[in-house]
Design goal:
single chain; about 110 residues; alpha+beta; five-stranded antiparallel β-sheet; 2 helices; 5 strands; about 20% helix; elongated
């Protein structure tokens, strides 16, 4: 179940992944691991996107953009990473991150 060589993929010196093992469908061992993690954390993390209208002024059309992706943790906290990878934040909640940074929190299903 745990500790199989290659489960986390191989990393290059720059930290980039050399395979797509996380993009594959879960196998039976992954389902067991999921239950273990859920039990240890008291829940599972949830993924969200922070979207914001980048339009400027009333004349311009709406220009919705995903500006950050986030992870809501089982303890209620959250972490965000800007889409460009330049910024990282730790928050009391996903909603707090959206309020402070501007924009709306959109929950992503199946992620």
């Amino acid at each position: 179940m745990f500790g199989r060589r290659g489960d986390l993929g191989q990393s290059s010196p720059g930290g980039a992944r050399s395979d797509d093992s996380f993009a594959q469908r879960p196998d039976a061992d992954d389902e067991i691991g999921l239950e273990v993690v859920q039990g240890l954390l008291g829940g599972l993390p949830r993924v969200f996107a922070r979207i914001r209208d980048q339009g400027h002024g009333e004349d311009e059309r709406s220009d919705l953009r995903v500006v950050a992706l986030g992870l809501a943790l089982p303890d209620g906290g959250a972490a965000t990473v800007e889409v460009g990878g330049n910024g990282f934040g730790r928050w009391g909640s996903a909603e707090r991150a959206a309020w402070v940074l501007g924009g709306e929190c959109v929950w992503l299903r199946g992620a």
